[in-house]
C-alpha cells in the first residue's frame, strides 16, 4: 500500500511509501484528499498548476500539503491526482511543480470526513532507503 493511516491521539498521521520522491509527493496528495473525503468520489475534470518551494524535502512536503489545504479552504477544490510532478534542486533548496486534477467540493458528492486545518512539523520525516522513499506527516484537524 502506498500510504496508510496511523493511530494518532488528536490528529491524523499518515505514513507514505513510494519508489521515487515525486511519487511520494503524489501519494501525499492522494492521502490528503482521502483524509478530507473519499478520493474515489472526486472527479479529475479540472487541471490546476501547483508549485511549492522549501529549503529541505521535509519542509517541501509541508509546503506542498499546505498548498492543498489552502486550495480546499479558499478555492473549494479537491484533487484526485497529480501529473507531471517534478522536484528540482535549486540554490535555495527544492522546488516542486505539477498539475493537480480535481474538481470543486460538493457536499452532496464529497462527504466531509475530517477538516484539515494544517500540516504539522511534529514527527515529520522524509527519507530515502534501499526500497525507495518514505515519509510520515501529521495533519492538524
Order of helices and strands: EEHEHEEEE
Number of strand elements: 7
Number of helices: 2
Which value, in Å, is the CA radius of gyration?
Answer: 14 Å
Instruction: Provide the CATH top-level class.
Output: Alpha Beta
CATH architecture, by name, is 3-Layer(bab) Sandwich
- Overall outline: globular
User: Kindly, what is the distance between the CA atoms of the first and last residues, rounded to a whole number of angstroms?
Assistant: 24 Å
**What is the share of helical residues?**
10-25%
**Kindly state the mean pLDDT as a whole number?**
94
Q: Short summary of the structure?
A:
With 141 residues, the protein is an alpha+beta fold. It has 2 helices and 7 strands, in the order E-E-H-E-H-E-E-E-E. The relative contact order is 0.27.
Question: Would you give an account of this structure?
Answer:
The protein has a single domain, classed as Archease, Possible Chaperone, Chain: A, domain 1. Strands 1-2-7-6 form a 4-stranded antiparallel β-sheet, covered by helices on one side. The protein is globular, with a radius of gyration of 14 Å. Helix 1 packs parallel to helix 2. By secondary structure, it is of the alpha+beta class. Helices cover 25% and strands 48% of the residues. A hairpin with a 5-residue loop joins strand 1 and strand 2. It starts with a strand and ends with a strand.
